[in-house]
Amino acid sequence: MNNSLDYLAYPVIVSNHRQSTAFRKKLDFGHYICHKNRIQIVKPAVDTKPPVAHTHHILKLSKLQGEQKRIDKIEYENKKLCQKIANAHRGPAKVDCWNEYPSKRLLTAEKIQEKALGFLSCLDSHDTSKWLNAQS
Any signal peptide, and if so, which residues (predicted)? Predict the structure, then answer.
């Protein structure tokens, strides 16, 4: 068999006797040598660095502002409590918390009376005698 046909980089059917693979073989060998040289130059390296951390992902300003507002509110309430305690110690002994509870029974009596007055005012606006005469 012909030496030029011994090497075929790509299996093809040779239909013409003038087709030669010598040039193709030369090109492939050149690419192979170039690739081999690049492989020898390359040094193995493993990327052990952590991924890039963006500050807007780590540092949330809205959360910090909310936290600062909460701390300010707590400090304000603590200051008010300290002032109340100081006033209680400074002045004479007295009750500082008066809880006035209105009687529930009194409230229910007032509500019943209001309903009755409202009902009576409705009856006054209508003439009940005409209504009774119309019914009989």
Answer: none
